[in-house]
Amino acid sequence: xxxxxxxxxxxxxxxxxxxxAAGMKVCTVYNHMILxxxxxxxxxxxxxxKRHVQVWDVSCERQVAVQGPDARRLLDLLSPRDLDxxxxxxxxxxxxxxxDGGMLNDPVLVxxxxxxxxxxxxxxxxxxxxxxxxxxxxxxxxxxxxxVSPLGVQGPKSDELMARVFxxxxxxIKFFRYKRLAFNGVSLVVARSGYSxxxxxxxxxxxxxxxxxxxxxxxxxxxxxxxxxxxxxTKERVESGLLSYGNDIDRTNTxxxxxxxxxxxxxxxxxxxxxxxxxSEPKRQIRAVEIIGTIPSIREAWPLMANGRQVGQVTTAxxxxxxxxxxxIAMVDRSHWNGGTKLTVETTDGVRDAIVKDSFWT
Length: 362
Prior knowledge:
There is one protein chain. The protein is an alpha+beta fold. It has 3 domains: 16-60 and 147-237, Probable tRNA modification gtpase trme, domain 1 (Gyrase A, domain 2); 63-140, Aminomethyltransferase beta-barrel domains (Alpha-Beta Plaits, 2-Layer Sandwich); 284-362, Beta Barrel (Elongation Factor Tu (Ef-tu), domain 3), CATH 2.40.30. Helix content is 19%, strand content 33%. It has 8 helices and 21 strands. The chain has helices at 16-21, 42-51, 71-78, 126-136, 158-166, 211-221, 234-240, 273-278, and strands spanning 26-30, 33-37, 53-57, 63-67, 91-93, 96-97, 103-105, 108-113, 116-120, 142-144, 148-154, 178-183, 186-191, 200-206, 227-230, 284-291, 302-306, 309-320, 325-333, 342-347, 350-356. The strands form 5 sheets. A 6-stranded mixed beta sheet has the order 12-13-14-11-3-15, sandwiched between helices. Strands 16-19-18-17-20-21 form a 6-stranded antiparallel barrel.
């Protein structure tokens, strides 16, 4: 099997020693950093996530720090989301678009102060775009990648585990809000968020030297909770309709096509506003599609067909153990995106019947 050749272009994480000790077998590269996969089997890991608690090394979720007098002006130019009502302890899902309304990223914006934000990005070199806009307009703002490495704690027992390490204040954190909580004399941003629908937190670990002490503390505190090193579960995210930038959506798609139209509400003149609003009635959109029969692993998009004509494509597909079916995320043309519409999908192992669902499974 091919392995990742060591290089400074592919960075290890502050938690690498922990995930290696936990049994990391494979990893992928995300934002020029490893994203480890740690599970005994994909299905076993999926069930464990839904029943217990896992610690995820998601350091690859890098931050673009924006700080200075013009920080808010820069952010208002970058995103179609209205930031006026963003509270001081809030995280915002923030579509990031180009001049034509195409999505460059789908980050989470963390407000640290009125003049200081982190843009927590999906897999793309979005920092270069942010720097380009700031430099071109000569804004009074500093843009850089800080030494901040997120650690996910996900699953139904996450509140109990986090309370043992950070204290009961963690239980009061609301969804997509955060508190600064102390660990070993360091103040860390702890947000109720994460890349699953099972409940949990993301700890923004400032300072790589704090990575392994926190990792070890979580595992020591969670020994009786069946805590396990884990990673984002494709099966769980597809059931839940959680999108993966670069897989399910990319620059060819608008926020409206990605089902994120409710976040296009800024009254300000952001980059790409006119073109994006011209595309506000999408001709295609993300849908849940059930596929009948056995399916292979998906490495490239599978065409969705109706009467010999392509009407969309499946971008992610997997077997759902809980729902006993093949769940998938697809981009489907308006003419065929209604729930109950019957289609076929051309997998690499042949044609399969498919049906558009009214909603995702969870």
